[in-house]
Amino acid sequence: MNDNRFEKFTKEAKQALIIAQEKARDSKLNYVGTEHVLLGILSQESSLGASILVSFGVSLANVNLVLQTVGRVTAANSNAQKGWGGLSGFAKKVIEDAVRIAQEFNHTHVGTEHLLYALVSQENTAATVILENMKINTTDVKEQIIQTFEKAKEASNHANH
Known about the structure:
Layout: H1 11-26, H2 34-43, H3 48-55, H4 60-70, H5 89-104, H6 112-121, H7 126-133, H8 138-159
């Protein structure tokens, strides 16, 4: 994971992605899906992404519970290939979008909050289905993240004057 694409990622965001990989392997899946990225973000308890999820009542325990209840969604990605397939298309898009979102807000680093924003911006992924099963409105999560970005921007503007 020491590749240059991840140099702008915060320690927590990198760790979230590493844990996502571990969760996928533990599930005996050959890809990292959005559900694993969600678990990875939540595992970084002191990160902004995790605290936003927790403020909506989302925890590692209840995401794991939902995953067990609905069963792992593997049909879409089991191309009957053995070995490690890497990121699912959706998970790749989450990472690409997280980088883009950080740039749009002129943030120098990509954090768990950017990963979370990218995650809840997609529709019909394992992660959004899990959140919807928990009665979490992904639009509310996105708005909360934007408000957090705006507050941080205002705070830094005040600090610079």
